[in-house]
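hey
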């Protein structure tokens, strides 16, 4: 058996499972193949281990028997001392899944054990639980293989399966499906089983497509609405296994819709808020904090409303002294200099004009942190719908919007307030503000070590495409498309001197991309999509983009670890 990971989306992945000469895309359903329940043509098949080895995978007898037959898979009906273990080295298996279906905390803990240990690169298998409407969440949790046992059990009990739940087959006056089984004109267990198989296979295809696009979390948030078990498991997963999910969440992802309560706890969204609290420092010369609302158009600077805010700031003559911070859900706060960074320019939310209790509490907490930690001389609230929760946690501030931030009256009030409360900026303020903004971005992306990129450097270019240069050397570049800094080899040397975001290799120079077999060690701070430096000792050999987590780089023997941009 051989398993190769192709695409990743958090803990989920697509891959190729090669077994007994046949290749199958994963996630996949392994279909029981027997005279009574024949597997679909071309599917990944399992058969009873005692019947021979013509199937792709062997299936152990029931856990209620004392058979010692060695097999690849086993039905996970209940934990049992008689349950034969899968052979070591083949699959990572969730044991006793039926009992875990009644214990969401236990299920999430089992996922944590399964995906945080040395078996993370093995294909993972979950028996019995793979009903079509649950496949998205289970895959999101890192499961690669399911069996057809729950599909068969459903057909045997007259349960018609869909990707949103279960229906009573006998009570359906018309079948809400156009698959061949439902359009055959016959109704029976055979047709019902064929339908259940087709629905499950279609859902697996949808899941694989979502992983390839990087949108599986959106699909999961849509699917969980149909089953309380799914909702509670997703919420507990976000609460109890955030660190595990964050480790696998890419730092640059696909645009997404934040349309549910669960969107507030997406690992990439929570990471944004945590990184602000742990890494962020405001631009040095930004003496006044200006809190403003978000816009539907991203990045915000391209919106008409934010263009009007900018005009008001420029008219005041105090532009270089003002720090614009956008108040928004689900991210909480977005400093202007970070607006290109994922997910700040990549989310979309329904606008109702009303913030729920969780959103209000998030905004209150983050604004309190910002004002308390960054020490501004002046705080201005220029907000609309966000005004009530934000103003409630501010004490010494000026409200210039009075609830209508886009009106001419409020914009004029903003301009006059800045003129009255701030001195005119010096030439040094005007000259240095760009590098101050870039320093905040460097720190947010690379941690405190990132500030070294701005020491003695200047910023050139026209937003959103900006370059950091020191003398005649370009160190990094910010582009509107990527939204984060891309290192040059000279920039990589600066970062390697700080010992940050480094992937260590032996004494060779990468020719082409760096594969996992060549990695000796990787900085634990690295996430998929991060710019990294490939080093031997302190010698920077290449820079590029991480394609694996640091743990996978250390464990894998094949696969691309770093996509190289520049090398010696």
């Amino acid at each position: 058996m051989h398993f190769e990971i192709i695409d990743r989306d958090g803990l989920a992945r697509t891959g190729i499972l090669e077994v007994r000469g046949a290749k199958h895309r994963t996630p996949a359903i392994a279909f029981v193949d027997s005279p009574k329940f024949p597997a679909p043509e071309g599917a990944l098949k399992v058969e009873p281990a005692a019947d021979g080895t013509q199937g792709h995978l062997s299936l152990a007898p029931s856990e209620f028997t004392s058979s010692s037959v060695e097999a690849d898979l086993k039905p996970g009906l209940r934990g049992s001392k008689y349950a034969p273990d899968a052979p070591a080295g083949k699959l990572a298996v969730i044991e006793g899944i039926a009992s875990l279906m009644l214990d969401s905390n236990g299920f999430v803990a089992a996922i944590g054990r399964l995906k945080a240990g040395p078996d993370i690169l093995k294909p993972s298998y979950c028996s019995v639980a793979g009903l079509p409407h649950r496949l998205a969440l289970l895959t999101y949790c890192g499961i690669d293989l399911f069996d057809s046992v729950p599909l068969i059990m459903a057909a045997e009990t007259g349960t018609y399966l869909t990707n949103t739940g279960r229906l009573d087959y006998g009570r359906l006056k018309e079948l809400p499906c156009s698959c061949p089984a439902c359009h055959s004109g016959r109704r029976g267990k055979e047709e019902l089983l064929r339908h259940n198989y087709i629905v499950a296979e279609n859902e697996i295809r949808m899941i694989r497509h979502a992983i390839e696009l990087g949108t599986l979390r959106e699909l999961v948030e849509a699917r969980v609405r149909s089953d309380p078990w799914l909702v509670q498991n997703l919420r507990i997963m976000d609460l109890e296994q955030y660190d595990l999910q964050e480790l696998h969440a890419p730092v640059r992802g696909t645009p997404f819709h934040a349309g549910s309560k669960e969107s507030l706890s997406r690992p990439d969204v929570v990471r944004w808020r945590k990184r602000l609290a742990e890494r962020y420092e405001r631009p040095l010369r930004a003496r006044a904090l200006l809190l403003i609302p978000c816009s539907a158009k991203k990045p915000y600077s391209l919106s008409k409303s934010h263009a009007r805010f900018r005009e008001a700031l420029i008219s005041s003559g105090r532009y270089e002294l003002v720090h614009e911070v956008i108040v928004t859900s689900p991210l909480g706060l977005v400093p202007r200099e970070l607006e290109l960074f994922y997910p700040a320019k990549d989310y979309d939310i329904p606008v109702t004009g009303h913030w729920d209790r969780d959103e209000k509490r998030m905004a209150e907490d983050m604004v309190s942190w910002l004002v308390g930690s960054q020490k501004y001389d002046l705080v201005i609230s220029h907000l609309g719908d966000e005004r009530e929760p934000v103003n409630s946690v501010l004490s010494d501030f000026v409200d210039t919007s009075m609830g209508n931030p886009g009106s001419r009256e409020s914009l004029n009030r903003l301009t006059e307030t800045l003129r009255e409360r701030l001195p005119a900026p010096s030439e040094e303020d005007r000259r240095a503000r760009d590098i101050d903004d870039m320093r905040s971005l460097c720190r947010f992306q690379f941690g405190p070590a990132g500030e070294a990129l701005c020491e003695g450097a200047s910023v050139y270019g026209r937003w959103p495409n900006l370059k950091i240069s020191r003398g005649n050397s370009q160190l990094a570049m910010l582009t509107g498309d990527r939204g984060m800094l891309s290192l040059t080899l000279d920039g990589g040397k600066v970062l390697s001197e700080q010992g940050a975001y480094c992937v260590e290799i032996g004494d060779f120079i990468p020719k082409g991309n760096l594969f996992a077999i060549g990695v000796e060690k990787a900085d634990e701070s690295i996430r998929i999509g991060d710019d990294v430096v490939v080093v031997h000792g302190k010698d920077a050999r290449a820079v590029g983009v991480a394609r694996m987590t640091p743990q996978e780089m250390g464990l894998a023997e094949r696969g691309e670890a770093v996509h190289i941009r520049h090398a010696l």
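Residues 189-213 form the longest helix (25 residues). The chain has 16 helices and 28 strands.
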